[in-house]
């Protein structure tokens, strides 16, 4: 099972000091966090894509390309690639280039985003969000799967005899996840293509995500990709840990109360009770995370949000030390012990997809 972290890249004042990091400081901190995630044994670093303050990761491939040169093992991913407002031709090119630079350690997560003004900023209509996502993704798949593409659609100029360059590494496109917090249509397109489905369940109660994941699993089986319990599922979560649970709550409360996304809303206690947020000891994080499979079924990737709301870099690195040193080793062991036979323990990687393809290529020869 893959464990890792994702960042939303917010530039937020530290409510305990009043100091706001510069954009430069925040960007450099994110790269330090990613490299430390590899150092402590985590499997994945993922960055969001945002084009509005207070967020800075407007160019995920730039950051991930830099990290490809700074790391050796960790999978470099997005936690959102805006399939609606990005040109699918540019997505095809950018992520194939990143694949080559990272020697295949790349996947990406398609999403529509949660910032309405981004649509007109990039010349699109938010009322067409779902049709845009569907059409753009169908074109992206063709650009990766076919060397020469003739195409005409509703939302961009036609293509005639077009070849996206560079071609995917070894002829194998990056593995794609589809992230959604509300849209069954996104679960459907993930199932149709046999892609992964990521439920970023950091805001709403579990019942909402159970319905989406169950739909994805049922449709994955319907389209003949395998049994429903073999579908590739990823989950988000949030943690803040200290050795003593009260110390964790007391330290994290001002950051929670002033967070740019959910600050000044539900209480920390209510949010912890109703969502996957865990604020407490490493043992409490382990205990709560293990319950996720009870609700959603056995899954393949768990990403934690640990660096938001103005938390100092030193504190975030301490969180990674606890994740890598105490939490993830136990979770790996416990999830592996309970996983039924035939259910994948990891999502597809470049290496595994290449290995799966080699017998097919040999048979063709």
Automatic annotation (TrEMBL):
Entries under SUPFAM superfamilies matching the protein: Bacterial luciferase-like (SSF51679)
- Coiled-coil segments on the chain, per record: none
Listed GO MF terms:
monooxygenase activity; oxidoreductase activity, acting on paired donors, with incorporation or reduction of molecular oxygen
Q: Print the keywords alphabetically.
A: Monooxygenase, Oxidoreductase
Gene3D superfamilies noted in UniProt: Luciferase-like domain
Q: Where is this region: Disordered?
A: 339-365
In the UniProt record, does the keyword Transmembrane occur?
Answer: no
Which ranges carry the Luciferase-like domain?
Answer: 1-295
Pfam families, per this entry? Bac_luciferase (PF00296)
Q: Name one GO cellular component term.
A: cytosol
Q: Does the keyword Oxidoreductase apply?
A: yes
Q: Where is the composition biased (Basic and acidic residues)?
A: 353-365
The secretion signal range is none
NCBIfam families for this protein: LLM_CE1758_fam
PANTHER family registered for this protein in UniProt = BLR5498 PROTEIN, LUCIFERASE-LIKE MONOOXYGENASE
Protein name, entry field? Putative oxidoreductase
